[in-house]
Amino acid sequence: MWQNQAMLTFWLPFHLRRFTVTSVWQVLTVGCCWLSPPALAAEIAVQLVTQWQADSNPLRFPNDNTAQQATGSARKQDTILANDLRLGLVVPVLSERTRLLVSSNLGDRRYDYFSQLTHQPKNLDVAFEWAVGPVVSGRLIQVYEQRLFDYLSGGLTQRDQGTLNKQIAEFSLQLTPDLALTSTLESGRFNYDLPVNLLYNREDSGRQLSLRYRPGGSGGRGSYLSLGWREASSRFPNRDALQVSSLDTGYTENEWFVEAEWAYSVKTRSNLRAGLTQRDYDTLRSQNTNLLSLLWQNVYEYSPKTRFDWQLYNRPFSIVSSDTLYLTARGMRLDVDWRATAKTRLGAFVGQERITFHNAPNAPATLGGRYEDATRFGLRAGYELTRGVRLSTDLWRERRQRFPDQADIEQTIIRFGLAYTYENISGAAQRSGMTRYTQDYAR
Fold first, then answer.
1. Model confidence over 193-233: pLDDT tens digits?
2. Could you name the domain of life of the organism this protein comes from (predicted)?
């Protein structure tokens, strides 16, 4: 292990090199010894990733003269050098069912041409899982994330970052071996840096109650049925009177949902989540609406090496636009994963989506009937050079056809990466949650 220390330190971006591999291990080791009972081993994962990426359109300019007007140049493409340091930790506190899970990511993104987009993404996820016998269990979760603004249409070319702080408390009661009741409380804040986006700063809160029936008990992996209710509210405290007249101060949602999984066979399973949401705006009562959310996922494991994933969805979501209350996206996606050899993994996906705009009351009449058809596909390949050292390459392509009269948006991303992962116990990266920061595709 220690002979790799010089190589690992070299991979770190300049502003991270003050954190040596030795100091990381010292902190993790002391924490594990203090928290973990002697009979239970703490799990540690460390990952260093270097990636080079070519992006044909990082600011997502349309196929018109928007780029020239916004930047003084018709150039859209750029290259990006990315470095990430990721840590994962699983510490049994009292037992294997009562444990602390920590995962974090500290990154650096260096843009060559659009240098104003250079930034340092950050993630920290901490979860405390606890259990009292076979009946009562729960989780406390803290999430912190800082990420780059999701650019679209060239409306903003300055660097902006969004910061998320979210807290979740979950309590579960096993009423019978087959029946469990779960309640959840959530709160969070999402803030932007630039003054132009302050009107989209958001404060969220919510609660959820669900009842799940799983034949075979809580430890089973077969079919299940879950019914639930969710109430959530979003508030936008930084909006002025004009912005409130178009986008409101916030809204409250009540959703009734059903979740089900059907294990048809050892190779095939299907999962469905469907919900009907009533959204009530604070002052724009005429905009109150009912929203349908649907996610239907199917998995077919053709062989131990080949897997197919197919999903169909309909979901509402928000967008940073003063002319739009919300969007609805309806589409489908097919993924194929193939483990060609013990060291080689290949994959591909294709997706089609229609995005419909639901305009704000003050939106110009010329924006009526807006929608976009998005086509996406991607390829990926990974090869394990040695244990813990992996080469990867990704290709991601999207085309958005915009109607009725707006210019299309196209983007192609090609990425090459080299990653080193250390685990003191095999699977520690996945169990700690660190794998959530890994992107199989460029987007």
1. 999 999 999 999 999 999 999 987 645 467 999 999 999 99
2. Bacteria
- How many whole angstroms separate alpha carbon 31 and alpha carbon 42? 9
pLDDT per residue over 238-273, tens digit each? 999 999 999 999 999 999 999 999 998 889 999 999
Residue 28: how many other CB atoms lie within 10 Å: 20
Contact between 231 and 251 (Cβ < 8 Å): no
Burial of 342 (0-12, 13-18, 19+ CB in 10 A): exposed
Query: Half-sphere exposure (CA, 13 Å, Cβ side) for 418?
Result: 10
How many helices and strands (H and E) does the chain possess? 5, 18
Residue 94, both tokens: 């009292």
User: What distance in Å separates the CA atoms of residue 308 and residue 296, rounded to the nearest whole number?
Assistant: 14
Q: Map 317-385 to HEC letters.
A: ECCCCCCEEEEEEEEEEEEEEECCCCCEEEEEEEEEEEEEEEECCCCCHHHCCCEEEEEEEEEEEEEEE
What domains appear along the chain, each with residue ranges and CATH number? 2-437 (2.40.160)
Q: Where does residue 385 rank: exposed (0-12), middle (13-18), buried (19+ CB within 10 A)?
A: exposed
